[in-house]
Design goal:
The chain is α/β, with parallel strands linked by helices and 344 residues long. The protein contains eight helices and 18 strands. Helix 1 runs parallel beside helix 2. The N terminus is likely disordered. The structure holds fe (ii) ion.
């Protein structure tokens, strides 16, 4: 873990900054050209990676192509994968989201990929697979992007990338946007990160702002699963939001803390699942990301159920690092007892 460099970037803007009225003009409409292209992992990072992108519904299907990257302009032995295509109806438009999971790849190898429909393509993008065994790595850790996504989140992610262009992945600790069902905000989130998302993969966990309230119910935004292709190794019903990925000797676990806090059944299922994931962990290091902090450093916020539940497992299995968001603050400290409260 000595080589694991954490660059904590949190856009500490006021919550109210993001409360602008929803635009009635679709400034980020889907087109024939692939956009919102983002790399993630669905399966083993040493032998696979996933790419997700968006088009207009005029593009009925998607294709991913991949080849070993070489020094020349020509790529040899290009392989194609047919994409899974999902329809997403948003407040501003109707779009197709396509995803491919490139598998059977060589570890620690530089590939080139592109996505499209066979006629209209993205550019070719380089992507390096992970080593098959324990090895040092670095990643960029982001707190809540959430507000002023185009105008200010762009500063954070672009400066972070400029500082660490060789980082192995980005980790987003929830609240990527403010109003989850507004496609405009997702348009700004993707605009700000631009092509960085294409060649530096992301690990993402949802926050409470990914859980819109509508009609008396609270559910994960319908943007989440079409936009990101993530592991489905979590509890039933929490696929792609509670999951784990093993990266070069480190198990990175995403816990859906919003579901944990909101719904009793998701608290119970995640406790059972997490116990197994930590108990049967062959990796040297364990990193957890979850949106809500175990110990809140902000005002009178407090989530004792996280300490009474999840923290008992973090302690039992010696989880090394917990990366959280939500409070728009910076904090670090020792491992306090579960009885700790803000007033202490
Ligand atoms: Fe939050």
């Amino acid at each position: 873990m000595r080589n694991l460099l954490l660059l904590f970037v949190c856009t500490c803007t006021l919550y109210l900054h993001g409360q602008n009225a929803a635009p009635v003009i679709d400034y980020y409409p889907p087109t024939l050209v692939p956009d919102r292209i983002i790399t993630t992992w669905k399966t083993d990072p040493a032998t696979s990676f996933a790419v997700t992108w968006r088009t207009s519904i005029s593009i009925p299907k998607g294709i991913g192509q991949i080849a070993l990257a070489n020094a020349g302009p020509d790529l040899d032995s290009i392989k194609a994968s047919e994409a899974k295509t999902e329809l997403l109806v948003t407040d501003l438009n109707v779009a197709h989201f396509h995803s491919v999971n490139f598998t059977g790849l060589k570890p620690a190898t530089l590939y080139a990929y592109r996505v499209g429909d066979g006629t209209v393509w993205s550019e070719w993008v380089h992507f390096r697979t992970a080593a098959a065994k324990e090895a040092p790595f670095s990643f960029i850790y982001f707190g809540d992007a959430q507000n002023d996504l185009k105008s200010k989140w762009s500063r954070a992610i672009r400066q972070a990338y400029s500082h660490m262009p060789q980082a192995d992945f980005m980790l987003h600790a929830g609240d990527l946007i403010n109003v989850a069902q507004r496609d405009h905000e997702w348009g700004e989130w993707f605009y700000a990160g631009g092509w960085i998302y294409q060649n530096m993969p992301s690990i993402l966990t949802p926050g409470n702002h990914e859980y819109p309230r509508s009609g008396g119910s609270v559910v994960l935004t319908k943007h989440w699963r079409p936009s990101f292709t993530l592991p489905e190794n979590g509890p039933a019903g929490l696929e792609e939001s509670a999951y784990y990925t093993d990266y070069q000797g480190t198990r990175v676990i995403s816990i859906n803390s919003t579901a944990y806090l909101y719904f009793d059944q998701d608290s119970v299922s995640q406790m059972q699942w997490l116990n197994n994931v930590l108990k049967n962990n062959p990796n040297k290091w364990t990193v957890v990301t979850m949106h809500h902090p175990v110990y809140s450093p902000a005002g009178d916020r407090d989530s004792p159920s996280l300490r009474n539940g999840l923290k008992t497992l973090f302690d039992k299995y010696n989880v090394d690092v917990i990366l959280q968001g939500h409070d728009h603050t910076y904090a670090r400290g020792g491992n306090k007892p579960s009885t700790w409260r803000n007033s202490d």
